[in-house]
Design brief:
single chain; Rossmann fold; 4-stranded parallel sheet; about 10% strand
């Protein structure tokens, strides 16, 4: 298991119930997941996502993983993070998560940095904090780096 930072892994079972319930309401994504699991079109692709860590997003991450992608996720908004969902992704799906509900600013930027340290070939970014940090636009930025 790779590194991760979540509130409490013991919350995982509750998160699994929430993820499974959300999946029932996402039939198109479920079909994509089934197809991706067979075809593996994303094999070898490294993806860092900075998104709301919710049950719905967890299903997106699981779909990308089913397609062969190697994914990590950090929170785009610490106030919307569902700690049980984050725990389930780590425990049940072995997806590294860097997200804690209510995390402070320093922890938030530490988590963004962890997602970039993954050296993704592709990013998914709700709010552009990950991209801003990577490009050096953000005052917490590390300067530009080669993603390839």
């Amino acid at each position: 298991m790779r590194e991760f930072e979540i509130k409490n892994a013991d919350l995982a079972q509750g998160g699994r119930h929430r993820i499974d319930w959300a999946e029932l309401e996402m039939p198109v994504l479920r079909q994509v997941m089934t197809r991706f699991a067979k075809e593996r079109p994303l094999a070898g692709l490294r993806v860092s996502a900075c998104l709301h860590v919710t049950a719905e997003t967890a299903n997106l991450m699981r779909t990308l993983q089913a397609g062969g992608a190697d994914v990590v996720i950090c929170a785009s908004n610490p106030l919307s993070t569902q700690d049980d969902v984050a725990a389930s992704l780590v425990v049940h799906d072995e997806i590294p998560v860097y997200a804690i509900k209510g995390e402070d600013n320093a922890t938030y930027y530490k988590h963004l940095t962890a997602a970039l340290d993954f050296k993704p070939k592709m990013t998914m970014d709700d709010g552009a904090d990950l991209v801003s940090l990577d490009s050096g636009v953000c005052d917490q930025g590390r300067g530009q780096r080669d993603l390839l």
